[in-house]
Structure formats: C-alpha cells, structure tokens
Amino acid sequence: MREYESYVNLAKGNDKEYVEWYKAIVEHAKNEDFPIAFEEFFDAKQWKFMKGESLQYPPFLPATIDQLTDTQMIDMAKCVFDEESVRELNEFICCDGPKSTIQEVAEVIRKALREQKILFCHYDSYERFTELIAWGDEEKEESRVSE
Fold first, then answer.
1. Tens digit of pLDDT for each residue in 39-65?
2. Phi-psi domain of 93 (left: phi exceeds 0; alpha: psi -120 through 50; beta: other)
3. Sequence-separated (6 or more) residues with CB below 8 Å from residue 80
4. Rounded to whole angstroms, how far apart are CA atoms 71 and 6?
C-alpha cells in the first residue's frame, strides 16, 4: 500500500451507496442466500442471489484515466499492466539516462490503455533508454518493414 499510495488513495472516502448495497448482501447471507456473480460466463445484466432474487451490480463512480493525476496513473499502471510492461516501466523510471517527465510517462500509459497496447522501452545506439512507448501490432509491423 505504501508503494502505490497515490493509487490506493483513490479508494478512500465515504461510499454510503456501496455500504447499503453490501448490508443487503449480508442480510441475505444470514439466511444462507448468497450472491452469484456470473457475468464472466454469461451475458448477464445483473447478479442474483441463490434463491433467485435479483441483485444489481455494486454502485460505484469510476474514475477515468483522464481524471487520475500523473502519479496515480503511473502507480495504477504498475497494478494493471502485464508483468513485462511493468518491468519495462520500472526499468525506464529507474534508469540513469535521459528521462521523460512524469507527465509524458503518464500520457504514454494513457495511450497504451486506450489502444490496448503494452509498454516498451526504446533504446538509443548507446543502449540507454530514450523513451517509453505504447507498443502494439502496428509498431511491430512498421519495424518489420523498416528492417
């Protein structure tokens, strides 16, 4: 939690709607009536309790990637990207060579999320990191053509 403090702080605060939603689940559970969340297997619009009563999805107000600060965006990337992208990001941030600003790094992360790409470090001819890029199929095709 300390390592990704700015990202974790997004979850703090009062959430009366969620508390009420959760209390309803607890009340059902006291009667051995547990929620079934099966959205990942079916095209369900809501959850259900075991005894058949409908249960709406949890209420939440998601933050968009444009609402996150640049630091929160970088912390979030370390939690949501694949292991290789996180390794590339950490290596880029920790390198001794020339670096992009935090704002520039956060914008690359936003682009990668929007375009469903990975993060990749680009090296100069001296094997120093020069930039962090959002890497995807289009970039792979361009590099094959130019080789």
1. 555 555 677 888 988 887 776 666 788
2. alpha
3. 113
4. 7
